Structure formats: C-alpha cells, structure tokens
Amino acid sequence: MKPIDWKVTAQDGEARTGILRTRRSIIETPVFMPVGTQGTVKGVRFEWLEDEMDARIILGNTYHLFLRPGAEIIRKLGGLHKFTTWNRSLLTDSGGFQVFSLTDLRKLNEEGVEFRSHLDGDKKFLSPEISMEIQAALGSEIVMVFDECTPGDAGVEATRKSLEMTARWAERSKNRFDELQNTGMDTGFLSDSEFRNSDCGLAFHENESQIPNPKSQIALSGRQALFGIVQGAGHLDLRKESLERTTEIGFDGYAIGGLSVGEEKSVMYDVIEFLAPQMPKDAPRYLMGVGTPEDLIEAVRRGVDMFDCVLPTRNGRTGGAFTSAGKINIRNAQYATDVEPLDVRCPCSVCRRYSKAYLRHLYQAKEMLAATLISHHNLAFFLDLMRQIRQAIKLGNFAEFRREFLSRISNN
Ligand SMILES: [Zn+2]
C-alpha cells in the first residue's frame, strides 16, 4: 500500500489539477501550503485556516522545532498533530535549507552539518539520518529528504559536487526513513479506516465527487510519504542529472529545490520549464519556497502542483498586502481615509468587515491585530488564487485567466 495517492484530474497545456490523498486529508492541487514555522502559522489561528480558508495542508520547519522545543519533547507529546491540534496534513522540510542559510555558523562534511543554534549558540548536528528521525517524531504526512541547497549563483564544479552529495544524502535519507517506518517511530501513523472515520475524513467525503476514478480511492498505508529534491542551481544539464539520480532512487513525490534563492526570475522560470515536463507524470511536483502570486501562476503554467512560501505572513507583519490589483502597503498615507477593504474582490472575513483606514490605524498604533488581520487576508488571498487557478485549468481557460490576472496586477 502507498502512503499517498495522487491523480491528475484535468490538464490545460502543462498546467494540471489533481487530487492528493494523504492519511489526514484530501488536497486539491495545485495547492499553496501556508508555512507554520514553529508549530504555528504566524499570527493566524488554525480555526481560520480550517473553517474559513479550508487549508488542507500546512508546513512545519524541522530546524526550528528541533532547536525548540526539541524533537523528543514533541515525541513525548504525541507528535506535532497532537501537540498543536492541527489534524489535517503536514509537510515538514528537512532542516537543510535553514542550516545552509547559517553560512558563518556551520561546518559541512560527508556525514552531515555541524552548526551553532541561532538561539543560544549551542553546537548541534544534523545529518540525513537525524533529519528523518526528527521528522518521524514530528509525524508529518510528507517528509523531505535532507539535501544540500546550492547557492543560486554557484558555478558548475561547485554545483556538481553539491548535487552528488545531495544524491548520496537522498539515498541515506531513504534508508533511514524506511527503517523508521518499519519500526513504528512515526508518531503520525493513522490507518486508512481511522482516517475515514475521523473529522478529517469529512473532508474526504466533501471531495469525493471530484475524484473521477473511484479506483483512485485505494487504501493508504497510513505511513509517512518521502519526497526527493532536485538540485543543480541554474545549470540545466546538472538539473537533468540530479533529476535522473533522484528518480532512480524513487520517491513518493519530487521537489524542485534551490530556486528563489537570489537568482534572476528568468532563470527560475527557465529551470521549471525545462525540468517539470521531465519529472514523473504520476507524482506531485513541489516547488520549494516559492513565491509571489505571479510566480505561482508562472510555475503552475509550467506544470508545478505544490508550493509553500512565507511571503503572505512575513509581508503581513510589515503591512504588506497582496490584492487582485497588485501589492500594497497599508503604511502609505493614501490609506488613512480609505474606507474600502484591502481587496474588493476578496471573499475573506477581513475584507468583508474592515477598511484600509482602520487596518492602517492599527498598524501605525502598533496593535498586534494589524499583523494578524493582514496575514489572514494574505493567506486567504493566496488560497483563493489557487482555487481560481484550479477552476481555470478545469474549464480549459488557464491562459486567459493568467493574462487577465497579470494585466490587473501590472496596471496598478
Ligand atoms: Zn481579504
């Protein structure tokens, strides 16, 4: 039995919709996953994510949870689902990306990475095996392999060395992952029948009609799924090689890593356009850490199914709001007397109730509600955008949708 099930439901050019079933939720793709760095999506309650936005999957960060409160504490508390009460799907990253961002604080060798905690300077060590152990303690539905994230501007030699290390680490990740699954170390284990009888199972029934082939409702193993990561910076031949080595090992899904790390947008789009059509057609494709609304549309157009990004909440905390007319900043004086909502086209509860003038006042007065309300709107906007994208693909008018969306945001 497989840990996840994924099927394409519609295709428009390279863009595709699909249904992803995990042991905890039914997820329509393309999907945007809100980032829950420290066991919380910053400033936004789970109730809102569940009831209003209908988010089916969020992200957890291995690096942050490993340092605080620590994997063993979370294991004792029954895993990240029980600890946080988030009962829908979780994807956890491997911790690699954050560790490699600590350029001054780390020492890398074949075995893994030694680094100093950004919290207290304590020496810590992460390896493919340890990352798998932490992610099993967290009990996420989707586990990411531990990879070395190559800087966007790395030369050919450095990139090749890095992707070879990533391939060896991917193999080690998979070996340890399998051992952990076989010895019951995953705190999130949930059998298929438990899922069907759970509250999250309701989400399954709501969506049942959208699954075109009833045979796709095969029973799931209840185990974690493991995704491989393709690296190779902006070098297309190395990207291809990394993809071949990753698919050779074999994973439940495939991610494109090492983009949106400072390279030109055109490089990112070229890599996706080159890579996505060559990736396995019957597995979800996940573009890590991307991006703006335009990036999401451009990547979906090139065949990507899953996304995560901190932008909606990070910008929300500094007054930045994403709208269907482009990005605005609520600090601007022009909003002081603006009685319109952030986005007249947005169906979220913030836009139904509050004016830009009020949100600006909250922000200027340093009220914490400002960050909460703008983050809430931004996430609702991103999730609604994904719904519109899926709708357009199903109707076969994604190209027209893209043209209209991009012209609206560039006219403002
Ligand atoms: Zn809104």
Task: List its traits.
single chain, 412 residues, alpha/beta, TIM Barrel, eight-stranded parallel β-barrel, three-stranded antiparallel β-sheet, 16 strands, 43% helix, 17% strand, binds zinc ion
Short description:
The protein has about 400 residues and is α/β, with parallel strands linked by helices. It has 17 helices and 16 strands. The chain has 2 domains: about 5-310, Queuine tRNA-ribosyltransferase-like (TIM Barrel, Alpha-Beta Barrel); about 315-410, no CATH class.
What does this molecule look like?
It is a single chain. The chain has 412 residues and is of the alpha/beta class. The radius of gyration is 21 Å and the shape is globular. The protein has helices at 46-52, 62-67, 71-76, 80-84, 96-101, 128-138, 156-182, 192-197, 199-207, 236-249, 265-275, 293-301, 311-317, 349-353, 356-364, 368-395, 398-410; strands spanning 5-12, 15-21, 26-29, 31-36, 57-60, 89-92, 106-108, 113-116, 123-126, 142-144, 225-230, 253-256, 285-287, 306-309, 320-323, 326-329. The model has no long low-confidence stretch (mean pLDDT 93). Helix 12 packs parallel to helix 16. It has two domains: 5-308, TIM Barrel (Alpha-Beta Barrel), CATH 3.20.20; 316-410, no CATH class. The structure holds zinc ion.
